[in-house]
Amino acid sequence: MIEHPKGLVLLDTGWNDLVRKSQWAELGLQVQINKAYLPAGWSIKEQLAELGYSDADLEVVLLSHLHSDHASGLPLVKHAKKFLVSEEEFEAGRKDKLRYIPKMWRDVTLTPFQYVNSQLGPFHRSFDLFNDGSIQMIWTPGHSAGLSSTLITGADGKSVLLASDTGYAQSSIEERKTQGISINQS
Ligand SMILES: [Zn+2]
């Protein structure tokens, strides 16, 4: 979560706490390829509460992509004001019934955003959340069609890049190892 002057911004939701009771109920057939891991205190609801916040305090929930381990917790933050995901990912989530479980976002209204040409990322396409360069979603597809990495730049000009699922570890990036479920290994 980013405490931004324009409001609280949450990036991805992690798993819904329902997975503690039944992985099958949350994941269906996906349990064969995906296992949820959510120790006590780790759900987004619990983590927000620990910081003294509730989901209604969130200005925007940004989704790097819509795979289960990033979107399953959406019902836990359904009172956030806005939910944004790239148009490419939104379309993939609608069409690809194998990799996505749309019931995870049925309680919220996902609003697709459009990447525009920019200097950022491998494909020079990104979306500037507040139009001030502070939070930018950069198109880094491969693992999924619309995957975003997030570049956060503070008032001091220093940046942090959050790159969900672009590589599982430093070594996988350096050795260019891709993941089994990628839609495009190159
Ligand atoms: Zn993923």
Please sum up the structure shown.
By secondary structure, this protein is an alpha/beta fold.
Please provide a written account of the structure.
Helices cover 16% and strands 23% of the residues. It has helices at residues 23-27, 44-50, 68-71, 87-95, 170-174; strands at residues 2-4, 7-11, 58-62, 82-86, 110-113, 116-117, 125-128, 135-139, 148-153, 159-162. It has one domain (2-174): Ribonuclease Z/Hydroxyacylglutathione hydrolase-like (Metallo-beta-lactamase, Chain A). The mean pLDDT is 94. Strands 1-2-3-4-5 form a 5-stranded mixed beta sheet. A 5-stranded antiparallel beta sheet has the order 6-7-8-9-10, with no helix packed on it. Residues 65, 67, 143-144, 165 line the site of zinc ion. Residues 2-174 form the Metallo-beta-lactamase domain. Its cofactor is Zn(2+). This is Metallo-beta-lactamase domain-containing protein.
Strand and helix layout:
Layout: E1 2-4, E2 7-11, H1 23-27, H2 44-50, E3 58-62, H3 68-71, E4 82-86, H4 87-95, E5 110-113, E6 116-117, E7 125-128, E8 135-139, E9 148-153, E10 159-162, H5 170-174
Parallel strand pairs: 2-3, 3-4, 4-5
Antiparallel strand pairs: 1-2, 6-7, 7-8, 8-9, 9-10
This protein binds zinc ion.
Residues 65, 67, 143-144, 165 line the site of zinc ion.
Shape descriptor reads globular
Biggest sheet statistics? 5 strands, mixed
Helices and strands: which structural class? Answer: alpha/beta
Uncertain residue segments: none
The whole-number mean of residue pLDDT values reads 94
- The Cα radius of gyration reads 16 Å
Oligomer class = single chain
How far apart lie the N and C ends? 31 Å
What is the number of beta strands?
A: 10
